[in-house]
Amino acid sequence: MPLRIKSQHAISNLSPPSQIPRFPITRRGRGGGVQNLWLRGASLPLSRFPLAPPHRHFLRSLFQAPPLLPPPFSLSPPLQTFLLHLTTRSNKDSSFDLGSQPDKAEVEKLCKVINESVFSDRDMDLLLTECAIGPTQSLVVSVIDRFHNAHKPAYRFFRWAGSVPGFAHGPVTYNKILEVLGRNRQFEIMVNLLEEMGILQMLSMESFKIAIHSFAFSSQIKRCLWVFQLMKRFGFDTGLEAFNCLLDMLAKEKLGKEAQKLFDKMSGQYTPDIRTYTALLAGWCKVKNLVEACRVWNEIVDRGLKPDIAAYNIMLEGLLYGQKRSEAVKLFDLMKAKGPIPNAQTYTIIIHAFCKGRKMDLALSVFEEMRVAGCDPSVAIYTCLLTGFGNAGRMDCVISLLSQMEESGPAPDLHTYNAVIKLLTSHDMPEEANWVYKSMVQRGFEPSINTYNTIMKSLFSRHHEMGCRMWEEMSKKGVSPNANSYTVFIAGHIQHGRAREAERYILEMVNKDMKAPLIDYNKFVADFCRVGEPNKLEELAQKMRSNGKFESADWLSRRAGKVRVRPGPNHTIP
């Protein structure tokens, strides 16, 4: 549906040459000047192409504000193909029968016992056994889901369930706890668990996908390679598709240099295809290294391979993020004139760049051009426009466009609602953010942990009780608080002078193996000084030591040495 906002700009077409473009590799010379280094071929610098006036200075103010949304990188062909391979290979593994849905009352009871064991001297295993609830596959998955941000209780529950007579973990429960360990960067435990899964024949392609993603996200390159070798050891396919997937995951985590090293090391074992080079291209573009990105692009051309639309889109986005704006425009116009024809992802990249630079008239111009070209704008593009209007301070357009989407389509998705809620809270509009949250829930969307954290922080800025209600609602929905949730919640208590409650949740947070929160400890100590307890931080540190949390205790002790607050008149802390 056309937007009810008009634009005054349009993008004109150029008439570039018909061959696949080549890119100069630009480096700075010894005297500070810029040198264009060319690979083989008779390419001309893109800067020699004429540039239409509307584009001469476009995107000049790009990249001044941090993006609200992640860059619109879609799944690249290596990952798309390999995920299809994963699905085919692991259908048998993932179809493991979970049985009927777990009893909600049993899930709640087990979760309550696990939470209470954090502050209890009694053993968690004994408390769980006393519940007299027999674990099932679906029950174990549901309970672990509740603690996906707290690996220690989740892993202890997983081990307890495996020790119950008559129950044995299956591939799904193993993968679930593997995912929790990866999320919390417990890599040593992950490695041991993967070995255990291999011995018990519980490994699946899904297991490898979780492991590679977790290791790549934390730059654990050697462990990524170890997973690759593990696949070989247990008879899984490690052909070119799997290798391309590994490169792609490294690229997605901004590890272009590491992906290139892996490619160079393994080049003798595989014959690279366009998907291999596309993954390398994405890796260098992600880290804004256009010298290497151009080298990879030119190598594609030299090898006689034809870049597909995915490669063009990645290069286009790399040029924009590398602030080669005129070259990006020329590549875009070249695609329109000679192919490959821009697709929805291409337009999304351009619109996202304009929105990021607060060039909303130009963004709307490309939006209209996209519709004329026969590409239906996706929800992601509408979300980009919403974000752009919000960053430009045009909150009336944000509310209007969101209402239009809800009434006429395309229907907002979870990312849309999260983006709007973040915009509203950043503009000090907590009531409106709460209204959008309620609308999202009414439409059947389950808020993410980030949604709760954002709204809770906004509500605490004005109302203590409303912030607490959001915490309670998060708990009722079965969403496990993460470190950021605790930090927001504890800071909210301190902000409203509830230091006693803050103390309780600091201990709860640390006992879940999370680090002590970064909060206003000066105010925290000041509140306790006023009731004659100036050494509260040291007391907290001592409690942590008695529970074996030595790292957090030492950190808090150092923090206590930096806090200097004079005791004021006595009063009671609520």
Write the layout of secondary structure elements.
Layout: E1 25-28, E2 34-37, H1 77-94, H2 104-117, H3 124-130, H4 137-146, H5 151-163, H6 171-183, H7 187-199, H8 205-217, H9 221-233, H10 240-252, H11 256-266, H12 274-286, H13 290-302, H14 309-321, H15 325-338, H16 344-356, H17 360-372, H18 379-391, H19 395-408, H20 414-426, H21 430-442, H22 449-460, H23 464-476, H24 483-495, H25 499-511, H26 521-529, H27 536-546, H28 550-562
Antiparallel strand pairs: 1-2
Description:
The chain is mainly alpha-helical and 574 residues long. Among the domains are: 354-405, no CATH class; 413-469, no CATH class; 481-574, no CATH class. Helices cover 62% and strands 1% of the residues. The chain is built from 28 helices and two strands. The protein has helices at 77-94, 104-117, 124-130, 137-146, 151-163, 171-183, 187-199, 205-217, 221-233, 240-252, 256-266, 274-286, 290-302, 309-321, 325-338, 344-356, 360-372, 379-391, 395-408, 414-426, 430-442, 449-460, 464-476, 483-495, 499-511, 521-529, 536-546, 550-562; strands at 25-28, 34-37. Strands 1-2 form a two-stranded antiparallel ribbon. Strand 1 and strand 2 (34-37) form a beta hairpin. 44% of the residues are buried. The model is unreliable at 1-18, 28-96 and 566-574 (pLDDT under 50).
